[in-house]
């Protein structure tokens, strides 16, 4: 009987190697390891067969329990249906498919590691990328080698089954709250309240009236209440500290875990060996307030989800057709069944069916491949594709997703060098050294006080470990940058991510494009000189300029007015040069003088842009377009030239050089007759000279220059033209605010450094009192989350105040319509 009881107790203590849950009587043994169910055993065997057992080195029992997983083999059969697949996927071509899954089981670093190594489980999986905040996994796979049904089944086998609900595909999926943290907080709160109740007699002289028996009973009850606090509520701190130590690093949870263990062990020593009251009530309060602070931080980060913020502020609009008339509307107002028009170089905003006979779509924004794909009428075109050719009309098939487009925009990762120089990385490096310093001070206080009073030494040791937490230091950077992003967004300046702010603060050279950037087509006056144009020729011109989104094409398009476009046989745009079309076997050219085969008639005493019209080698006429300089450009450049080196790159002739030098000063280095390749090469030369370059362009003929610059800002007056090559998009009406934006970005770094100083000051004062044993561990646990709150309040108030002083306090400065 005794052996049976011992064996039963041993089995109850055994935990599953995969998920960590206690094993019942039906414990399974495999590969010298214990598993609670066949599901966990299966997951382990799959990972072991594919040499992925490093997953278990990232955390103790990192997996999810498989007890509740269905064993039916056919439950994913519905994923073989073509209509269902079309509703789920983001993109598909002849070779690969892209899909985004919502996986609520994602909860730690080991989950991310395993899900981003799916390609090692099946050769048909190309890659996978995890968004931890949104609990999303974006998977690319080869549909000929693995079906969607098999992919989902594979993810389910390893414990990360996607949540697929066809009824709410268009709804935004938000990660649910971490219930485990709430459970632990509830347990700690319950135990802490009762432990304080049982400890009340210790604080009053009347306690002796209860007798020694009752006093000991209350102490033993506190011991029982401390067990769930120590072995359940504090497990996250143990796990995090163990992972850090195993990887030979020290994080902020190491001193907290040490303080918890020290307080618990010493309290047991006092109660059972010395007959004293111990500090278990302090331990309960410590965990309760620590978890309360952790919950506050989690809720605050959810509220200030910067990814959601810039998505909400980022303007994406489309051209919708209504009774054969165009109207530009926000993406959020486009519905399934709407007909939209997409021009050359514009992005397709939603999965749609092509209504034209054919189209050429560049999916480089989605796949990285820049080869246009030929599409026939009735074929689905996926969101993120870029139209190459004449304007096409599409029937929207799936609800547009602004979040999907911004996810694509933000996909490019920063290099290790950029991350190394970031303030976030600086905060992490400081936090590591800070934690080691705290440990030295804590052990020094323990050693000193132990020579006089061991109890005081334990009190000082735990107080130092708890009160000096670098949480505030780690929070200052993301909260400051996130608040700056929101302020920028309200002023019509939309950033790819918060790290762009740090890059903006480091630039020393500004490079401007001219047409469409410093000048605006809406402000330019236009007139035509030459032979009178027939209705047929006007229709041909209308069709040609409707093909292009270049500022000069837009200006000619407005001048033409409601002309019915002709049906062209062929049309092509040469970036930086002009348009070539074929109509009734005739070759029509519209563009710059350098683009023409014949020398056009010169027009003297005009310093603006000249767009020539040539039909079959005969020059018919010229469109004379004033530069249309944006209002306030002189003042803006005057403010910038005192702090930055300025360069102007233009594809036009240099006949406007003297005018621009008079308007903007000789401090600006002007370069004319610049092709897109010339612009790119010039920026690379500046970078080789050690310059930190910020390029401001319209995103059309200077996409390469925007991409290669440290920071690329696309200026646009028409938000239907989305520029994925840029790091930021600026409303053309707000270009004059550029000096304020650059100054505010630099001020943001000062706010972060000030918050560093605030955090160090708090910790220095806390250490001063803690080493003397003047503060209890419970008070330290209360003060620690208060320090995080103070940083959030400080960074928010400081950035808002700086925005107000710089005139960036607009609630909604953008005027997109």
UniProtKB/TrEMBL annotation:
<dbReference type="InterPro" id="IPR001757">
    <property type="entry name" value="P_typ_ATPase"/>
</dbReference>
<dbReference type="InterPro" id="IPR059000">
    <property type="entry name" value="ATPase_P-type_domA"/>
</dbReference>
<keyword id="KW-0472">Membrane</keyword>
<keyword id="KW-0597">Phosphoprotein</keyword>
<keyword id="KW-0813">Transport</keyword>
<dbReference type="InterPro" id="IPR008250">
    <property type="entry name" value="ATPase_P-typ_transduc_dom_A_sf"/>
</dbReference>
<dbReference type="GO" id="GO:0005886">
    <property type="term" value="C:plasma membrane"/>
</dbReference>
<feature type="transmembrane region" description="Helical">
    <location>
        <begin position="756"/>
        <end position="775"/>
    </location>
</feature>
<keyword id="KW-0406">Ion transport</keyword>
<keyword id="KW-0479">Metal-binding</keyword>
<feature type="transmembrane region" description="Helical">
    <location>
        <begin position="279"/>
        <end position="296"/>
    </location>
</feature>
<dbReference type="GO" id="GO:0055070">
    <property type="term" value="P:copper ion homeostasis"/>
</dbReference>
<dbReference type="InterPro" id="IPR021993">
    <property type="entry name" value="ATPase-cat-bd"/>
</dbReference>
<dbReference type="InterPro" id="IPR023298">
    <property type="entry name" value="ATPase_P-typ_TM_dom_sf"/>
</dbReference>
<keyword id="KW-1133">Transmembrane helix</keyword>
<dbReference type="InterPro" id="IPR006121">
    <property type="entry name" value="HMA_dom"/>
</dbReference>
<feature type="transmembrane region" description="Helical">
    <location>
        <begin position="250"/>
        <end position="273"/>
    </location>
</feature>
<dbReference type="InterPro" id="IPR036163">
    <property type="entry name" value="HMA_dom_sf"/>
</dbReference>
<dbReference type="Pfam" id="PF00122">
    <property type="entry name" value="E1-E2_ATPase"/>
</dbReference>
<dbReference type="Pfam" id="PF12156">
    <property type="entry name" value="ATPase-cat_bd"/>
</dbReference>
<dbReference type="InterPro" id="IPR023214">
    <property type="entry name" value="HAD_sf"/>
</dbReference>
<dbReference type="Pfam" id="PF00702">
    <property type="entry name" value="Hydrolase"/>
</dbReference>
<keyword id="KW-1003">Cell membrane</keyword>
<dbReference type="GO" id="GO:0005524">
    <property type="term" value="F:ATP binding"/>
</dbReference>
<dbReference type="InterPro" id="IPR023299">
    <property type="entry name" value="ATPase_P-typ_cyto_dom_N"/>
</dbReference>
<keyword id="KW-1278">Translocase</keyword>
<dbReference type="InterPro" id="IPR018303">
    <property type="entry name" value="ATPase_P-typ_P_site"/>
</dbReference>
<keyword id="KW-0460">Magnesium</keyword>
<dbReference type="GO" id="GO:0016887">
    <property type="term" value="F:ATP hydrolysis activity"/>
</dbReference>
<dbReference type="GO" id="GO:0005507">
    <property type="term" value="F:copper ion binding"/>
</dbReference>
<keyword id="KW-0812">Transmembrane</keyword>
<protein>
    <submittedName>
        <fullName>Cu+-exporting ATPase</fullName>
    </submittedName>
</protein>
<feature type="transmembrane region" description="Helical">
    <location>
        <begin position="781"/>
        <end position="803"/>
    </location>
</feature>
<comment type="similarity">
    <text>Belongs to the cation transport ATPase (P-type) (TC 3.A.3) family. Type IB subfamily.</text>
</comment>
<feature type="domain" description="HMA">
    <location>
        <begin position="97"/>
        <end position="163"/>
    </location>
</feature>
<feature type="transmembrane region" description="Helical">
    <location>
        <begin position="434"/>
        <end position="452"/>
    </location>
</feature>
<feature type="transmembrane region" description="Helical">
    <location>
        <begin position="458"/>
        <end position="481"/>
    </location>
</feature>
<dbReference type="InterPro" id="IPR036412">
    <property type="entry name" value="HAD-like_sf"/>
</dbReference>
<feature type="transmembrane region" description="Helical">
    <location>
        <begin position="220"/>
        <end position="238"/>
    </location>
</feature>
<dbReference type="Pfam" id="PF00403">
    <property type="entry name" value="HMA"/>
</dbReference>
<feature type="transmembrane region" description="Helical">
    <location>
        <begin position="181"/>
        <end position="200"/>
    </location>
</feature>
<dbReference type="GO" id="GO:0043682">
    <property type="term" value="F:P-type divalent copper transporter activity"/>
</dbReference>
């Amino acid at each position: 009987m005794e052996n049976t009881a011992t064996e039963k107790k041993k089995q109850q203590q055994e935990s599953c190697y995969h998920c960590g849950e206690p094993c019942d009587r039906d414990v399974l043994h495999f590969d010298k390891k214990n598993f609670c169910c066949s599901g966990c055993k299966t997951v382990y065997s799959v990972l072991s067969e594919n040499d992925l057992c490093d997953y278990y080195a990232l955390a103790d029992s990192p997996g999810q329990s498989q007890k509740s997983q269905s064993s039916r083999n056919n439950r994913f059969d519905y994923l073989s249906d073509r209509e269902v697949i079309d509703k789920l996927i983001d993109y598909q071509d002849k070779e690969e498919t892209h899909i985004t899954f919502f996986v609520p089981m994602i909860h730690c670093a080991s989950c991310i590691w395993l899900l981003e190594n799916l390609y090692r489980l099946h050769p048909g999986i190309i890659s996978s990328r995890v968004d931890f905040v949104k609990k999303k996994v974006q998977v690319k796979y080869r549909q000929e080698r693995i079906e969607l049904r098999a992919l989902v089944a594979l993810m389910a086998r390893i414990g990360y089954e996607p949540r697929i609900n066809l009824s709410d595909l268009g709804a935004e999926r938000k990660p649910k709250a971490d219930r485990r943290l709430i459970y632990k907080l509830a347990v700690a709160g319950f135990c802490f309240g009762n432990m304080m109740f049982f400890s009340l007699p210790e604080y009053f002289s009347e306690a002796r009236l209860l007798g020694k028996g009752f006093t000991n009973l209350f102490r033993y009850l506190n011991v029982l209440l401390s067990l769930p606090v120590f072995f359940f509520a504090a497990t996250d701190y143990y796990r995090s500290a163990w992972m850090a130590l195993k990887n030979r690093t020290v994080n902020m949870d190491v001193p907290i875990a040490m303080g918890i263990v020290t307080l618990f062990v010493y309290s047991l020593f006092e109660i059972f060996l010395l007959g004293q009251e111990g500090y278990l009530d302090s331990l309960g309060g410590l965990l309760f307030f620590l978890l309360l602070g952790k919950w506050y931080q989690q809720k605050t980060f959810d509220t200030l989800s910067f990814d959601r913020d810039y998505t909400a502020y980022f303007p994406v609009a489309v051209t919708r057709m209504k009774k054969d008339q165009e109207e530009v509307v926000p993406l959020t107002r486009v519905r399934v069944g709407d007909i939209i028009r997409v021009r050359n170089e514009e992005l397709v905003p939603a999965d749609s069916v092509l209504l034209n006979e054919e189209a050429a779509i560049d999916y480089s924004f989605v796949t990285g491949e820049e080869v246009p794909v030929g599409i026939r009428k009735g074929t689905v075109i996926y969101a993120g594709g870029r139209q190459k050719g004449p304007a096409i009309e599409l029937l929207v098939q799936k609800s547009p997703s602004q979040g999907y487009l911004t996810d694509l925009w933000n996909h490019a990762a920063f290099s290790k060098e950029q991350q190394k120089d970031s303030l976030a990385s600086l905060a992490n490096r400081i936090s590591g050294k800070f934690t080691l310093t705290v440990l030295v001070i804590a052990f020094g206080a323990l050693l000193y006080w132990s020579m006089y009073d061991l109890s005081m030494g334990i009190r000082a040791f735990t107080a130092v470990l708890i009160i000096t937490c670098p949480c505030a230091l780690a929070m200052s950077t993301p909260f400051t940058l996130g608040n700056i992003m929101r302020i920028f967004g309200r002023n019509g300046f939309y950033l790819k991510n918060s790290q762009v702010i740090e890059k903006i603060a480091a630039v020393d050279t500004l490079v401007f494009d001219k047409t469409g950037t410093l000048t605006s087509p809406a402000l330019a006056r236009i007139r035509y000189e030459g032979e009178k144009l027939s209705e047929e020729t006007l229709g041909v011109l209308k069709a040609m300029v409707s093909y292009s989104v270049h500022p000069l094409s837009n200006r000619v398009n407005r001048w033409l007015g409601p002309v019915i476009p002709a049906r062209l046989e062929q049309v092509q745009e040469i970036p930086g040069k002009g348009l070539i079309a074929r109509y009734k076997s005739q070759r029509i050219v519209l563009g710059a003088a350098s683009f023409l085969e014949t020398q056009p008639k010169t027009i003297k005493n005009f310093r603006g842009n000249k767009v020539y019209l040539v039909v079959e080698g005969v020059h018919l006429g010229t469109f004379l377009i004033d530069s249309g300089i944006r209002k306030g450009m002189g003042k803006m450049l005057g403010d910038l030239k005192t702090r930055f080196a300025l360069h102007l790159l233009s594809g036009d002739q240099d006949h406007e050089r003297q005018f621009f030098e008079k308007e903007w000063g000789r401090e600006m280095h002007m370069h004319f007759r610049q092709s897109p390749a010339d612009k790119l090469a010039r920026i690379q030369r500046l970078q080789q000279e050690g310059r930190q370059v910020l390029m401001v362009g319209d995103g059309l003929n200077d996409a390469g220059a925007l991409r290669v610059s440290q920071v690329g800002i696309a200026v646009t007056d028409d938000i239907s033209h989305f520029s994925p090559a840029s790091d930021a998009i600026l409303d053309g009406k707000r270009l004059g605010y550029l000096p304020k934006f650059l100054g505010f970005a630099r001020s943001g770094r000062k706010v972060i450094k000030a918050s560093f100083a605030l955090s160090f000051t708090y910790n220095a004062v806390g250490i001063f009192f803690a080493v003397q044993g003047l503060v209890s561990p419970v008070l330290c646990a209360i003060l620690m989350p208060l320090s995080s709150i103070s940083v959030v309040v400080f960074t928010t108030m400081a950035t808002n105040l700086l925005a107000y002083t710089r005139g960036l306090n607009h609630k909604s400065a953008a005027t997109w319509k």
